[in-house]
Amino acid sequence: MFGARAKGNVLVKTRVIALCCILALLASACGSRLSDGELATGGGTGSGSAATSSGSATDGPGITKGSTKDEGPKVGTLDVPCGMAADGKASTKAPAGDVPGVTADKIKIAVISDRAGQVKVPTISIEESMKAFVGFCNEFGGINGRKLELTTIDSKLFNHLEATKEACNDGVFAIVGSGSVTDNSGAQAMVDCKLIEVPAYTVTAAKSLSDRLVAPLPNPTTGINIGPALYIKKEHPKAIKKAAILHGGIDAIDVQADRIKKSYEAQGFDFTFDKRTGVIQESYTSEVKEMKDKGIEYVTMVSATSEVVKVLRDMKTQGFSPEVIDLGQQYYDPDLLKEPGAEGALVQLNTVPFEEEKQSPALQAYLAAYDKVSGDKPEPSSLGVQSYSAGLLFATAAKAAGPDLTRDSVLAELKKIKKWDGGGLHFTSDPGDNAVSTCFMYDVVKGGKFTRLEPKKATEFTCDKDYAFDLDDDYGGGAKVGG
Question: 368 and 394 share a domain?
């Protein structure tokens, strides 16, 4: 009896985590540097600045000093937005009026994320990346002399509403660097309590189209980036006429697959195989056989890494070798590299790959700050990079808003920022207009490693304003929250 119960609990847990991973595909990125044995520590709520080891961010990796006495330090290509007040001193003046989370010498912010316990989840390094940013910023003196204080809140995969209410009740000034797979449930609550948010990523229409949110890498559901589709069309014109898409069997993933199909078909793709699979399956033998029999030459999948690995394994077993295997950002994951069938697969990215750390001062600065976070922590991930970029974006806007901070003044400054790359952490985006991405890059799995394919030059991305494809409000235009 006990053995049967334990087995059942493992299956339920596996299905929950698979669902979490699949939902996270709707985010901008989900890559990780985790190994099999690396699992996050328990989550929960806590507060305080990140504990760091000795050493100063002001002269650390990726930081350059201004060439004149009037120029401040840079993190990558970005002017460091953290420092003392304009008079060179710490702030000693409380803001005008009652501003939640702001005192004469402190700005209280929160990060909400799905924490991992006994299992690996895609959002695993978000909290740690925000601790890294807070430690980095406070070493420079805070924002206009006010030190940052961080509250961490666990949204526990499906408790985003409760987490948002906790942030509201805790009196934080803003939510920064956040990411939760069910972010729609707390979207209206965030607006209702007058919070502002600068997330690492968004998943759902309700969150991505929120009035009081500005993201470093916008992901509005009413549009999509077709740059990758046009690249595949150019390089593999015959393959796109025999295309296949597989997608895990839940409604949110069906919507994402439909968005891909609609936008890619407009570029000439012909999806002759469209299969809604189980959330998790023991194998994909029948799907692979059917694709092989149909002569499929292009395969993409919207699911969890664990599931695409099974597909690739079954493809190798059956000797099915389509011309193109096209995988999204979430598959920038070392688990993919362990499957021999992944050789030759293309993987999209929107952050600078970790393999290019030496060529990216901004990535060096992130990793140095991350290394200083004390305690057990997972390896950094590309979602963590986005969280750190969100911290830099928030600080840039808060600095511009001046000493008399209000949520609305910071939100107004955020909406003025039309070009953003986090100092070189990722491609250039338009946060202020919540614009669809118009850049991409591809890695290819080669020799069991991620290797840059397009564009060829390290740290660069292929960009064109025409890559933004309008989905005519068919995917969440009516879900916008505000008030």
Answer: yes
Residues 311 and 390 in one domain: no
Q: 172 and 50 in one domain?
A: yes
Tens-place pLDDT, residues 232-242: 999 999 999 99
Residue 52 forms part of a structural domain: yes
- Enclosing domain of residue 188: 37-217+357-416
Residue 21's pLDDT is: 56
pLDDT (0 to 100) of residue 237: 98
% of the chain residues with pLDDT over 90: 66
Q: Domain tally for the chain?
A: 2
Same domain, 127 and 198: yes
Q: Is residue 281 part of a domain?
A: yes
Residues 109 and 199 reside in one and the same domain = yes
The pLDDT tens digits of the residues spanning 251-268 come to 778 888 999 999 999 999
What does the alpha-carbon distance between residue 148 and residue 235 come to, in Å, rounded to a whole number? 48
Q: Hey, what are 393's tokens?
A: 């974006």
In a domain, 119, yes or no: yes
State how far the Cα of 131 lies from the Cα of 49, in Å rounded to an integer. 7
Q: pLDDT class for 403, splitting at 50, 70, 90? A: confident
CATH code, domain carrying 57: 3.40.50.2300
Examine residue 47 and state whether it is found in any structural domain, yes or no. Answer: yes
385 and 266 within one domain: no
Same-domain pairing of 153 and 277: no
pLDDT for 184 beyond 90: no
The pLDDT assigned to 380 comes to: 87
The predicted pLDDT at position 258 comes to 93
Q: Are residues 212 and 234 in the same domain?
A: no
pLDDT at residue 65 tops 90 = no
Please give the pLDDT value at position 253.
81
State what percent of residues in the chain have pLDDT above 70. Answer: 82
